[in-house]
Amino acid sequence: MRKLLPLILAILLLAGCQGGGAEASFPPPASSQPEQPAPPPDSEISVRAVVEWLSDENHHQFKIDWADLWVTMELLPGQRDGEREIQVDIWSLEDLDEPMQTIRDYIEENVFGWTQVADVNFDGHLDFGYMHYTGNQPNYWNFWLWDAGQGRFVAEPGLSEISAPVFHGETQTISGFARDGWAGLAGTSTIHRWIDGQLTCVRRVVSAPTEINDEVFQFVVEDWVDGQLEEVLRQEVPVSNEGAIFELREKWEDPLYTGEE
Predict the structure, then answer these.
(1) Helix (H) or strand (E) holding 149
(2) DSSP symbol at 178
(3) d(C-alpha 128, C-alpha 165), whole Å
(4) Which helix (H) or strand (E) holds 83?
(5) Strand partners for 62
(6) How far is the C-alpha of 229 from the C-alpha of 222, rounded, in Å?
(7) Is 39 helix (H, G, I), strand (E, B) or coil?
(8) What does residue 46 show for φ and ψ, rounded to 5 degrees?
(9) Contact 191/256 with Cβ under 8 angstroms?
């Protein structure tokens, strides 16, 4: 694999491939191309082998544009607790002899290839993540954040606990939602912020049937008050008025909403 990947990345660079799992678009014959740096001349691996590597379901690649980095992923034979081992190699186009960083991890096999590139901590540098588990809507990701001091990506375990994370640069918040049945009526929404460099849940919105009557839902909001989460709303809503439940959730999923109309 280490012999093949530099050639793969060199060809992707020539092709201007955008990554994200898209199929590579290889350049036309050299006679119709502007002069370009060629793949390593000492490689004995054919372009066909590169295409086969990229199209194999156990391989995936994407680009992190801000630093001309490529990330390649491979699903390995190793297993642990029903999960498959993966290898993630991060390559700098300035030096394709060896990856600048290698990550080993375990994920559910059926989510291999689901990736995100986003500015996760809103510091101006793109980070990346890959899904490691999915259920009936809830899905969880492992994210790696760029650390300029170390010159490498570091894991942020707190993000692995947020279902279906979405990163909002305009409010510098991270929203998540985990459905818990009832066609989406039951579930938990969260809003996180970075406070003093720590990922912090600043709002939790839960809708669920009451313990004694599943025809009535309990709608509960916890908000960040004086440095901790405190309950700011508890309201019962009949299941028959499902529109009110969705409306309440939508309001409180807005980080700027404070409960005042």
Answers:
(1) none
(2) E
(3) 12
(4) strand 83-92
(5) 71
(6) 6
(7) coil
(8) -80, 160
(9) no
Can you tell me whether residue 243 is helix, strand or coil? helix
Structure token digits, residue 127: 């980070």
Tokens standing for residue 202? 């600043």
In this structure, are residues 209 and 187 in contact, taking their beta carbons and an 8 Å threshold? Answer: no
Instruction: Return the axis-axis angle of helices 47-55 and 5-15, rounded to nearest 10°.
Output: 90
Task: Return all residues near 4 (Cβ < 8 A) that are at least 6 apart.
Answer: 45, 49, 50, 53
**Where does the chain have alpha helices with state H?**
5-15, 47-55, 242-252
Do residues 56 and 67 make contact, with C-beta atoms less than 8 angstroms apart?
Answer: no
> What's the rounded Cα separation, in Å, for the pair 116 and 255?
22
Per-position DSSP letters for 181-218, written without gaps between them:
SGGGTSEEEEEEEEETTEEEEEEEEEEEE-SS-TTEEE
pLDDT in tens, the chain (261 residues): 555 566 666 666 555 444 443 333 333 444 444 455 555 544 445 667 777 777 889 999 999 988 789 999 999 999 999 999 999 999 998 888 899 999 999 999 999 999 999 999 999 999 999 999 999 889 999 999 999 999 999 999 999 999 999 999 999 999 999 999 898 899 999 999 999 999 999 999 999 998 877 889 999 999 999 999 999 999 999 988 989 999 999 999 999 998 876
Q: Rounded to an integer, what distance in angstroms lies between the CA atom of residue 229 and that of residue 225?
A: 6
Query: What is this structure's pTM?
Result: 0.81
